[in-house]
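Continuing the batch. This is chain 6 of the set; chains 1 through 5 are on the previous pages. Same settings as before, nothing changed between runs. Recording input and output for traceability.
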Amino acid sequence: MSTSWSIQITLVQLMQEKMSVVYEVTVYTGDAAHASTFHNVYITLVGTEGQSESVELTSWLPSIHERSVKNCEVKCSKPLGELLVIILRKEHHILFPNSPWFVAKVEVKSPMGDIYPFPIYKWITDCEEHYFREGSAVLLSQEKHDITKLCWTKDIVEQQGLFNWAEYKSGLPHIMKAETYSALPLDVRFYFTKTIEMGWTAVKALELKLVEWAECKEKFRSIEDIQRLYSCHRTEISDYVHDHWKEDSFFGYQFLNGVNPMVIRRCRALPQNFPVTDEMVFKGSKQRLKDEMKNGNIFLCDYKILDGVKANIINGKQQYLVAPLVLLHKTPDDKLKPIAIQLKQTPAEDNPIFLPTDSEWDWLLAKTFVRNADFNLHELSSHLLRTHLLAEVFTVALLRHLPMMHPLYKLLMPHTRYTLMINFLARKFLISDTGTFTTFASSGGEGMLTILRRALSSVTYRSLCLPDDISDRGLEDVPNFYYRDDGLELWNIIYRFVEGTLSCYYKNDKMVQDDQALQDWINDIYSNGFTCEEKTDIPKRLNTVKELLKFVTMVIFTCSAQHSAVNAGQYDFIGWMPNTPPSLERPPPSRKGEATEATVLDTFPSIDVTVHGMATAWLLSKQSSDSEFLGNYPEQRFTDDVPLEKIKTFKEQLKILHLQIQERNKHLELPYTYLDPEVVENSVSV
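Output for chain 6:
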């Protein structure tokens, strides 16, 4: 009897196996080291015609290696129809309950040979069920199935549990809430390679500072003393800066192609508080200021945002920071040269206007105060606020409101890589109460917060959009302006990429207006990035496809190209301290004819301030070996044909621009490389 029943059961099993269909599952752990897990992992397939049983994947053994691939079969009694969702779950492990597992993507091959990709690129840290939709990008209004709508809900709930807003300082953009390193979700932390390299780079920076000099609070006694310090680390461009820093033409050049090309604007009328006369700047010449301004040859750099800022105290010594006005003239040979400098905003007898015809040391000292002002405004406004802090706002809002299957999520995620982590480190080590900038810059401490608040109040949407910004500053036809030339090329290439990608998802303006996830994202940016200031023109809602394309282009440009423009050249222009001193130890001159070389040396910062400034600039300028450059998307989040084709075209256009920049630079005395697509990273990651 038992033998008969055994035979019947065996026959039933054979018939079931013959009637079953098999789905082939391939799981990739991607490029994250230590991505495997001790846990047993289970997968469930969900389709339009049903779902599979929960099936255990092939055993996963922890590995230090990257790109692990595992295969398994999921057998079903009948086809599941069109695959919609997979459900992944880690089984609880008593010895390693919190062991995380990084999933790059899952591919499922149906019995009919169809391949269903599921791009994931996430760490799974708990033992809950995690739902992942098939890889096609969609808007919520296009979802037809309850299970895919559930994916939206689950994704948003999970993300909003991980990513929350916090106030950093009153009046500044909000940040991601994370009190400690361990509070950062694994998805936004450095990969293992990046972590090691950041530590190594910091060690190299310490070598650069030379331990015996890092704590030396003495003053430099000669330019040769600074030279000896500088010789420990040099670049080709920093050597050029070293050789030309005193020259007026190079002083002017830096307003266009240095690390802060954000201040200069064409001057059509002199500010009332800058009483420059023809006799001052064109003595003995037939040229007149009025005519030169009319002809578009006069330019102004006004640092009024620094006026009245409380300067730092370093090593017990009062530091100094001025709010200068600089007038520049475009010469017939297309060079930009300073023709007048006023170091404080209010005209007065003890606030003279310095001129190139003054003594060598008077003029050099005036330019030195300008370069120090530019350093502080650059680091806090152009660099920290307008790239790092805004990129963090874009990122947190994205993670809180746009689920994985949303086309904007897929498009923008590569441009958020490492941003939250690097900003966390910056707040801890650079701008904290004991941070390097706070300790060694003339605007460190209270002054830093004043500048950041003023800078945020001055941010306009047009100033974040390069074509508008260049136009508003009247710089469309300034010669030898490579930041503008390369930046506009990049802006247009990015815009075409964004247009080609998003236009296949947003067919009309109503689709933009009705996309609640998109509207929540943009409103979150407005509310948390710009503290709801009504006077700002930052949009809090998008109503047309055209508005959407421009805003997304601005986000990508800010996180990639703009950050590269204001960050990558820091050591090049700051490494030789006399060109860009981080702090100054004497008040600005109140009379002419008194400055000497000794005055300039005494005004320069002390040795320890100099070496810390050099080391920080070197650290911030250093790229890591796992950098991802513009147009390179190793995490293939899009699976649809149109965006994949647009990515290919994007890369081709960036390659053409790279070759054009390379060719131009061959003929330049000082090459401009910071917006070459091959050195522009996708995101604010350093």
